[in-house]
Amino acid sequence: MTQRALDSSGEQTPGPSRPTMIDAGAELDPVHPMEPPPARRPDGLSTAEVAERVARGEVNDVPVRSSRSITEIVRANVFTRFNLIIGVLWVIMLFVAPIQDSLFGFVIVANTGIGIIQEWRAKKTLDSLAVIGEAKPTVRRDGTAAEISTSEIVLGDLVELGPGDKVVVDGTVSEADSLEIDESLLTGEADPVIKRAGDPVMSGSFVVAGGGAFTATKVGREAYAAQLAEEASRFTLVHSELRSGISTILKYVTWMMVPTAIGLIISQLVVKDNNFKESVARTVGGIVPMIPEGLVLLTSVAFAIGVVRLGRKQCLVQELPAIEGLARVDVVCLDKTGTLTEGGMDVTEVRPLNGSDEAYVTQVLRTFGSSDPRPNASLQAIIDAYPAAGGDAESWTVTDAMPFSSARKYSGAAFTEADGTDSVWLLGAPDVLLSEGDATLTEIEQLNEQGLRVLLLARAEGSLDAPGAAAGAAPTALVVLEQRLRPDAGDTLAYFADQNVATKVISGDNAVSVGAVAGKLGLAGAENTLDARRLPTDPDEMATAMEENAVFGRVTPQQKRDMVAALQSRGHTVAMTGDGVNDVLALKDADIGVSMGSGSEATRAVAQIVLLNNSFATLPSVVAEGRRVIGNITRVATLFLTKTVYSVLLAILVVCFQVEYPFLPRHLTLLSTLTIGVPAFFLALAPNKERAQPHFVRRVMRYAIPSGVIAAAATFATYLVARHYYSGEGALEAETSAATLTLFLVSMWVLAIIARPYTWWRVGLVAAMGLGFLIVLVVPWLQDFFALKLVGAPMPWTAVGIAVAAAALLEFTWRWVGRRFGM
Questions:
Q1: What is the reported pLDDT for 711?
Q2: Mean pLDDT, the chain, as a whole number?
Q3: Please, are residues 493 and 522 in contact by the beta-carbon 8 Å criterion?
Q4: Reported confidence tier of residue 226, pLDDT bands at 50, 70, 90
Q5: 522: left (phi over 0), alpha (psi -120 to 50) or beta
Q6: Least confident window among 376-380, 425-429, 700-704, 755-759
Q7: Is 70 exceeded by the pLDDT of residue 185?
Q8: Which residues of 257-282 are buried (b: 16+ CB within 10 A; e: fewer)?
Q9: Cβ distance 135 to 601 under 8 Å?
Q10: Fewest beta carbons within 10 Å, which of 33, 202, 220, 681?
Q11: Peptide bond into 757 cis (omega under 30)
Q12: Closest CA to 212 of 262, 272, 266, 140
């Protein structure tokens, strides 16, 4: 038996000229001049030629990175606006005050170091996983095909292509076997383009059907689309509601901080006639706590640790905000094959139709299996069931072939049989190849209801490339395939149902068959199936149909894209999973695209998350990690911003009342460490299964503003009462101690509220922070170090009483906000 050779004659007429993004790339400054396209050579380059081109620098050296460089990590963590402000204040304090008033600077140094270390760990994880998931194109050299790294391709290499392969460099088609390439990711045109020898191909496009090979004509940075791919695959931290919300908060904090700090400086250094150095110290003490310096750090650390945790589960997060994005998803669209079922299938039965001879049908299937050098899962099952054999089988030859297409729903092959008879055969979806009223469809429906996949083998009239080749095809046999269910898919579907995430199964297979498979896995609403050929084209009507049904069959790649858009138009956050080339457009348009590691190069390239272990069951871990990040950062942000609010208000009150600022930097360093810094670090990394909520900034400020107002009012009230109570030498230190006690107790109550719901370690965390402050108050040398000493009994108990009243008001306010706006 012979296989049809790939068309390498080059005698076909090239297709019409079309504008492409490669043309735009010609305007860029080249890294090195490229020679004209080499002559087409079926054996590819020789080893000597490859070495020569590497020496000339004609190699695909684009550094596609999954993470920031070490230099970028250090720069991003060190050179920040708030680090600059705190750094200047720290230097000033080192000259005018004792070392204990400069502790805040050492804390910032430690925080920055932690941020660098954690992001470096995340970088190592990302880089190692990216190598595992890297596309390995097949290149022909010295007449032998071998997989190599993308970066090893040189100018003039002959790169082979098959269904799902991504074009990794620009080139010219040398061999074409019904080659269809989708360039929509570059040009926006949804329809695949048929490529013939001599036609250009662009890096970033991908093969949807057929096969062939192309000669690399532009490598490295010369390929314009390759530059886009490099930029798109780089590490990113900013495009998320969480991080953009924090940026918004920091912008408002800066606006509040600048005029308040100026007023405080004037008040403490000009209006009040105090010791200059102590005035400077108290001024700095008022400015430093306005800065939520640890908030960005903890957000970065939470993301970075999330990447490391998911990396241990063989989950590559190509864009860090995808962790957060998947946690916000309320609809998951699943492709059945490769997600709910394993990639392989088994032929369970072949049913001849209309009196066909079983031995003849077997021979047709055996020969059909040899027609496609890159068979899909269905054809591979037929090849496994009917392997090539000797004898008469060798006299059957394949004269033409048409690879499977998701848009067509069938493949085809033309044979010359042993007796010299020519025949044309189609293999694909029965409800596409048969007329609507055909009696065979009833029999097929019964098989579909059992969750079996059914293909129809039909004999066609005319040639494969004739328009309407499927019209009038004579049914010859049914090929019944059994799909292998993923053992963990049922538990994953149950998890999403429990989390109120709607699941939609979208497949190119028969809707009834897909529904039966989904039903076996326990999918709620699996009985609500819809054939996508009856899906309305109006976006609003399509959105309604999507919300009312759970299973969709006979879906084309363009329809998958339209269905994602329809759901998004109703305000849904949509995740799309898939592994086939027919999923690429939908993966690209979904809010979060999830690809299997064994999927096509094209799907891995556009997905934000790649499951390298090919396990759908990893998704709940990603959702849980995202919810941990979002929920915990929301808690932590409330802590930090409560401090910012009360610091700004205290400074304003000090300016308005023309009094000394009550705190030295050491006091607020102690309070921040015990009520925010240490507990925030633990709370940011704790388990958290709360469903992600939108409007991060609004939700945080609803709690932080009233909490900060109450803390500032209680603290300043204690300070004013203490000013009237104490007099003489040491009065300011006693007043500061009383105000510090009130502020600590109120801040502790805010922490106690945020730490809910309580677990043993959360209770222990709050108790440990309270114990730490108590130790400072009772150990003499710590009293001296932090300048904290409670004088007498009436004033400290008054401070406690004011704090208790403030705590009661905090409880009432938080509960009212929760009832009024929801948690």
A1: 96
A2: 80
A3: yes
A4: low
A5: left
A6: 376-380
A7: no
A8: beebbebbbebbeeebeeeeebbbbb
A9: yes
A10: 33
A11: yes
A12: 140
Say how far apart CA 672 and CA 151 lie, in whole Å.
Answer: 49
The pLDDT score that the predictor gives to residue 24 is 33
Report DSSP state, residue 164: T
Tokens of 676: 């925010």
CB-count exposure of residue 507 (10 Å: 0-12, 13-18, 19+): buried
Active-site amino acid positions: 335
The Cβ of residue 79 has, within 10 Å, a number of other Cβ atoms equal to 9
Q: How many CA within 13 A on the CB side of residue 616?
A: 30
Distance (Å, whole) CA 379 – CA 381: 5
- DSSP SS3 for 23: helix
Tokens standing for residue 548:
């009312």
Give the Cα separation of 148 and 465 in Å (integer).
Answer: 35
**Nearest partner of 163 among 407, 352, 345, judged by Cα:** 407
pLDDT tens digit string along 254-277? 788 788 878 877 777 665 555 677
For residue 154, which phi and psi values (nearest 5 degrees)? -120, 165
Q: What is the DSSP string of 647-693?
A: HHHHHHHHHHHT---S--HHHHHHHHIIIIIHHHHHHHTS---PPP-
For 788, list phi and psi in degrees, rounded to 5. Answer: -125, 115
Which stretch of DSSP H or E encloses residue 426? strand 422-428
| pTM exceeds 0.85 | no
Query: Alpha-carbon distance 444 to 431, whole Å?
Result: 9
Please answer whether residues 86 and 291 qualify as being in contact, where contact means their C-beta atoms are separated by less than 8 angstroms: yes
503's enclosing H/E stretch is strand 502-506
Which pLDDT belongs to residue 809? Answer: 96
User: Which of 427, 435, 430 is CA-nearest to residue 460?
Assistant: 427
Six-digit token string for 46: 């020789």
Is-contact 643 292, C-beta < 8 A?
Answer: yes
Q: What is the 3-state secondary structure (H, E, C) of 204-259?
A: CEEEEEEEEEEEEEECHHHCHHHHHHHHHCCCCCCCCHHHHHHHHHHHHHHHHHHH
Task: Tell me the per-residue pLDDT of 714-758, one tens digit each, with 9 for 90 and over.
Answer: 999 999 999 999 888 888 889 999 999 999 999 999 999 999 888
Q: What is the mean pLDDT of residues 16-40?
A: 38
Per-residue pLDDT, 708: 94
Q: What local confidence, expressed as pLDDT, does residue 12 receive? A: 34
Q: How many whole angstroms separate alpha carbon 256 and alpha carbon 705?
A: 13
Round to whole Å and give the CA distance between 111 and 105.
10
To which residue do tokens 């062939």 refer?
212
Q: How far is CA 330 from CA 29, 202, 347, 501, 592, in A?
A: 45, 36, 37, 5, 11
Which range is least confidently modeled, 58-72, 239-253, 492-506, 699-713? Answer: 58-72
**Residue among 62, 40, 42, 60 nearest 50 (CA):** 60
Say how far apart CA 325 and CA 363 lie, in whole Å: 51
Sheet harboring 315-317: ordered strands across?
315-317, 609-611, 592-596, 574-578, 331-334, 502-506, 551-553, 529-531
- Do residues 211 and 373 lie in contact, with contact meaning Cβ atoms separated by under 8 Å? yes
Determine the Cα–Cα distance for residues 239 and 327; give it in Å rounded to an integer: 15
Phi-psi region of 337 (alpha: psi -120 to 50; beta: other; left: phi over 0): beta
CA–CA separation, 660 and 70 (whole Å): 45
Find residue 504's DSSP bridge partners.
Answer: 333
| Rounded Cα gap, residues 2 and 454, in angstroms | 28
Length of the chain: 823
95 exposure class (CB count in 10 Å sphere: 0-12, 13-18, 19+): exposed
